[in-house]
Amino acid sequence: MNRANFLKMSALAGTAFTVLPSKVVFGSPNSKLSIGIIGTGLRGQELLRLSLQRNDTDVTAICDIQQVMIESALRLFDKAGKPKPEIYDNGDYAYRELLARKDIDAVIIATPWEWHFPMAMDAMDAGKHVGCEVMMGSTVDEHWEVVKKAEATGLQYMMLENVCYRRDVMAVLQIVRQNIFGELIHLQGGYQHDLREVKFNDGQQPYGGGAEFGEKGFSEAQWRTQHSVDRNGDLYPTHGIGPLSKMLQIHNGNRYTSLVSMASKARGLHEYIVKVGGKDHPNAKIDFKLGDVVTTMISTANGESILLQHDTNLPRPYSLGFRVQGTKGLWMDINKSIHIEEVSKPHRWEETKDWFEKFDHPLWQKYAEEAQGAGHGGMDFFVVNAFIEAVKRNEPTPISVYDSAAWSVITPLSEASIANGCNAIEFPDFTKGKWKSAKDIFAIGDDY
Ligand SMILES: NC(=O)c1ccc[n+]([C@@H]2O[C@H](COP(=O)([O-])OP(=O)(O)OC[C@H]3O[C@@H](n4cnc5c(N)ncnc54)[C@H](O)[C@@H]3O)[C@@H](O)[C@H]2O)c1
């Protein structure tokens, strides 16, 4: 069954709970969407580039507060042969002028984390659907406010969690859906990426990172490092928890029930600053609050356990550290290995290659060519495609506002757990019970 039929049937059966826009009319795949992009830094530029490649999307306005980023964004319009957008660059709240435009249907927000909440709230107040980069808000209350705003306005809010669309992760989702791991028992994931020197150089942009951050930094170093000074928790849980949630059927008969976090001591950033800037560098005096490795455990209503790790301030190769384990076998991404009882040799790992070819998701089979060259090995194409297709058809986004809130709220919950001596914290149910009966609409078939 394709996705449109599935959605229609779910709606008819009264089981789809994701909020539909106020005029519940299934739009057409041929509709055209006008979007504005708020934040045209490095991430915003990739989301812009992907939007400009499409025939069903006009990017009519962009907003940023740094000329260097606006200029890079404008070059993308030239490259794509698309008309230049209206530019909003007059201060921190210039985005509200963009939102006041009547011709914009949806916005993509790719600004620093602390801006996501006010921008998304203002956008929905202005009647725009929201595709927001990862992290919904800073506090638990802010997450509730976004959920309530989406419900009250009937607008879509989708977190643009791209790892849900990684090719190997989607193959594993197919394997889970066919019950080949058996009943799921324990899952792991996280964000394990050496970000000590957030830098960039394409020949035109300055280098950033090193021992500098804040005003002297570039791109993420301007704002992200400050979170390591001020906060102690899992600051970036969604790349791990997003894909795992779809495998666990979270909000489709399952939900997160409680969470506990623990942080190690913080040494990595200080040692790095001393190494590259010298012990007398002013930043060598900073007392970083964020533990180098933050470990979070989450329980679910259906009895699975989840372990998440945040590890961005120590030397290490990149890995999201996935592990998906059931009663009949498991997958781990670190050594690209799978083991299925009575299929694999006893006690031996198998290479994943043949499995992933066999269970390649229909979306990847259909769009692999279009996705080529898109960021993060192609997965960025799919997340942009999903947001734009859903909004233009007036269908619920495959990552709902409830999903987005549950994945992102892990940050303030983990901060609270660590601050209170690693105690267990109850997980909020943003769906208010609707998780029990809602049907899974994520990546069903090969539509989007
Ligand atoms: N999903 C992914 O794989 C992925 C990858 C990278 C970044 N991100 C996320 O994307 C977001 C942006 O990250 P980035 O790497 O592009 O950072 P960045 O610093 O390069 O870009 C952020 C941009 O927002 C602009 N900005 C700040 N305040 C603003 C305001 N008030 N109004 C308008 N513009 C404003 C900045 O000038 C900057 O250009 C973050 O939430 C980050 O976590 C996601």
Please provide a written account of the structure:
There is one protein chain. This protein has two domains: 3-162, 3-Layer(aba) Sandwich (Rossmann fold); 164-363 and 399-436, Dihydrodipicolinate Reductase, domain 2 (2-Layer Sandwich). The protein is 34% helix and 17% strand. It is built from 15 helices and 15 strands. A nine-stranded mixed beta sheet has the order 14-13-12-11-7-10-9-8-15. α5 (113-125) links the parallel β4 and β5. The protein is globular. The two termini are 13 Å apart. The relative contact order is 0.17. The structure holds nicotinamide-adenine-dinucleotide. Residues 38-44, 63-66, 69, 92, 95, 110-113, 115, 133-135, 162, 219-220, 222, 376 line the site of nicotinamide-adenine-dinucleotide.
**What is the residue-mean pLDDT, rounded to a whole number?**
91
Kindly report the CATH topology of the largest domain.
Dihydrodipicolinate Reductase, domain 2
Measured by DSSP, the beta-strand proportion falls in 15-25%
Tell me the domain tally. Answer: 2
Q: How far apart, in Å, are the first and last alpha carbons? A: 13 Å
Q: What's the helix-strand series?
A: HEHEHEHEHEHEHEHHEHEEEEEEHHHHHE
